[in-house]
Amino acid sequence: MTTIEEFNEHVMGSYGRFDLVLEHGENRTAVDENGKQYIDFGSGIGVNSLGFCNEKWVEAVCAQARSIQHTSNYYYTKVQADFAKLLCEATGYDKLFFGNSGAEANECAIKIARKYSFDRYGRDAERNIIITLENSFHGRTMATLSATGQDVFHNYFFPFLPGFVNVKANDSEGLIKTLNELDGRVCAVMFEFVQGEGGVVPLDKEFVDVIIEECAKRDILTIADEVQTGVGRSGKMLTSQVYGVKPNITTLAKGLAGGVPIGVCMADKSCSDVLVPGTHGSTFGGNPLACAGGIAVLETVLEDGFTDEVTKKGEYIRQKLSEIDEVDGVDGVGLMLGVRLKSKKAAEACKACLENGLLVLTAKEKLRFLPPLNISYEEIDKGISILSEILK
Ligand SMILES: *Cc1c(COP(=O)(O)O)cnc(C)c1O
Questions:
Q1: Which of 333, 28, 340 is nearest to 196 (CA)?
Q2: Are 198 and 229 in contact (CB under 8 A)?
Q3: Which of 140, 195, 254 is the pocket-test mutation for ligand 1 (most atoms within 8 Å of CB)?
Q4: What is the pLDDT of residue 296?
Q5: pTM of the model
Q6: Pairing, β 29-32 against β 221-225
């Protein structure tokens, strides 16, 4: 029996997968079970921010495994304290909650937003609506699915959690109209600066400013879902810095611990003490292996000049792509890029890339690049030349 046959016999079929069995990886190169090599432009959906088996990261995770791998959140560990301190200092947030995934980080943000309004306005005010954007993606749990503004994810799973209202992205008037209509009922507005699963669609700076201003006026919390855009991906520690704003809450996950499951919900002073004992928890949250991996990633991303290189590499890729006839345009920030093609289907191009030794992603009708943040120019050249061949 092949690995794929064995797998499919025992694992639920919730994913459309490629017929590819990856065996190991080194830096930005993955190797399949037949020894074939692939340049990685996907990082496992933006997770392996330092590539495969980065030396510093492996050392950190292995040392932690040899020391203490889990304790429960009834006790303290130094590695959790150190990681939380580093992350708060790097982002300017006051306090954070540890979970294990993007969806969990967003669940936490949703709970904080609802309790914030409950605490201030009381239960009878029913100030519990969270406004999210059309074409957004916030996760696969029932609450984050309810928040997600894309019908394709909603089939089958009715009924959804009440208290989520979608508005159009980049429609400031529409947002203000909805806020007025729901006056006194809204506790938060939640958004991605660059809609990832929605097709790498950046929000307009002007619209983001309106969200922040209108919410501040009305005592409504702003929640930035930076699960995909955070931790250096945009050429800044947080994409909120690219936009020059500071939402009340920011969630992080994918790239934060370089490949170990993690999710964090970070809050500013307005709401960092909303969660009190008994209101939220997670058995695995803040797992020491994840925290050790996270410290290795943060220390690297915070090195002098590291994020500037991310910006430069993003620009370099854009430049290279502009020389390919079939490329219609490129959207995104830093090393989060959505490539529009003129006539080829993104799904077919993605498959052809894979067959030719390049791992890329798709998002809606675009090819999506989320390469490891430390990818080299030489690897970029190799990857782009594979892409350019298959697009001929
Ligand atoms: C991937 C993603 C999520 C969900 O993260 P999981 O770890 O899969 O739960 C949420 N929000 C955004 C913006 C994402 O890209």
A1: 333
A2: no
A3: 254
A4: 98
A5: 0.98
A6: unpaired
